[in-house]
């Protein structure tokens, strides 16, 4: 059996791409050295542990291709669908062959436009976070490219409008942890595509994290009414609308008045009762020195052990009658009584079910 070296063109030879085509060169040539210096990966930064992913020989191989071939993140070159609905078929029939996968659904549904809608932004971010935790290796190569293209748009949107940076930081933290484990451990066997692609993607994620870490909120001068000018009962009503405790803590840091309102025991009690059951309170009861229940500490303690309820302004919907997953356009539904997909049911609204991010992933577990 012939021996296949690092490059398929010849065993053990080193090649670089020039304007005249591929050119073979020695390992000590200046051309290859320049290429290596341009695309060498800092593995100490990636792993945060002083360990290297590959040895020097593998690092040399990782530097042969151009970075644009490793991670083509050009959004103008996308060839993905932008559909409002897809048919979720889990088995082959006479009319349809094959089945719909998670990657296919992620490619075809219009997530790029969804992140521009403030009602759907949190939903898409949460979906990307769940995929990063457990489903990243199940995506096809095209779906993986689409995943990082959408993530790039999300990060740029946050850097521009300074909204929801905490959500994106949590997403990138989970994604970087997953990529480190996959690249260090079983990257060569389970990841779709060349290992160098994933190293470059990991570098990009670390760069995004650094940009968000350095994000500075600029104070805009406004001569009109501000949030602090509202009456106390209106400010209190705003705080009671929040379903995330970290949002309440963040808002309480704006002014002393908001801090006083954010420390209200009744506010945190209502938040705990909304997210958790009474049995869960008894298992993790926290009392103050005076014998009162510390509801704020209770919330953050229970959050570590139990999942909280998720709230989204808008979600994907699933039609049980047609087995169709779709985005529901409320403007068209109100004006033209359009359900968002070609439904044949007599009463379409009775067949619609909101799809949470976890339910979206579960739809494609066969």
Automatic annotation (TrEMBL):
Pathway entry: Protein modification; protein ubiquitination
Domain of life: Eukaryota
InterPro entries for this protein: F-box-like_dom_sf (IPR036047), FBX25/32 (IPR040394)
GO cellular component term of the entry, any: cytoplasm
Keywords for this protein: Nucleus, Ubl conjugation pathway
Major subcellular site: nucleus
Gene Ontology terms: biological process: protein ubiquitination
Annotated localization: Nucleus
Functional description taken from the UniProt entry: Substrate-recognition component of the SCF (SKP1-CUL1-F-box protein)-type E3 ubiquitin ligase complex. May play a role in accumulation of expanded polyglutamine (polyQ) protein huntingtin (HTT).
Name of the protein described by the UniProt record: F-box only protein 25
Organism for this UniProt entry: Dipodomys ordii (Ord's kangaroo rat)
């Amino acid at each position: 059996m012939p021996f296949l070296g690092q490059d398929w063109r010849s065993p053990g030879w080193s090649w670089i791409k020039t304007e005249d085509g591929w050119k073979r060169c020695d390992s000590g040539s200046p051309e290859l050295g320049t290429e290596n210096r341009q695309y060498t990966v800092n593995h100490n930064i990636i792993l945060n542990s002083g360990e290297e992913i590959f040895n020097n020989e593998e690092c040399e191989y990782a530097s042969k291709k151009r970075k644009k071939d490793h991670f083509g993140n050009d959004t103008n070159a996308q060839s993905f669908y932008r559909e409002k609905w897809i048919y979720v078929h889990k088995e082959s029939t006479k009319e349809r062959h094959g089945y719909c996968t998670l990657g296919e659904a992620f490619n075809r549904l219009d997530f790029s436009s969804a992140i521009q809608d403030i009602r759907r932004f949190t939903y898409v971010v949460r979906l990307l976070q769940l995929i990063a935790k457990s489903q990243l290796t199940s995506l096809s190569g095209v779906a993986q490219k689409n995943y990082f293209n959408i993530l790039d748009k999300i990060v740029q949107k946050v850097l521009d409008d300074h909204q929801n940076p905490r959500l994106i930081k949590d997403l990138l933290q989970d994604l970087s942890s997953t990529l480190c484990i996959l690249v260090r451990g079983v990257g060569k066997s389970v990841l779709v595509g060349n290992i160098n692609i994933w190293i470059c993607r990991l570098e990009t994620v670390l760069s995004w994290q650094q940009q968000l870490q350095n994000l500075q909120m600029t104070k805009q001068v406004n001569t009109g009414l501000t949030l602090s000018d509202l009456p106390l009962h209106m400010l209190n009503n705003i705080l009671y609308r929040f379903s995330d405790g970290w949002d309440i803590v963040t808002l309480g840091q704006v002014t002393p008045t908001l801090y006083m309102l954010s420390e209200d025991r009744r506010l945190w009690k209502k938040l705990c009762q909304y997210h958790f059951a009474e049995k869960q309170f008894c298992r993790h009861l926290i009392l103050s020195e005076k014998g009162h229940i510390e509801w704020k500490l209770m919330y953050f303690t229970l959050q570590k052990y139990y999942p909280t309820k998720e709230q989204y302004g808008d979600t994907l919907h699933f039609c049980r009658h047609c087995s169709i997953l779709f985005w529901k356009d409320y403007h068209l539904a109100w004006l033209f009584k359009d359900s968002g997909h070609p439904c044949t049911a007599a009463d379409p609204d009775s067949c619609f079910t909101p799809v949470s991010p976890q339910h979206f992933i579960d739809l494609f577990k066969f």
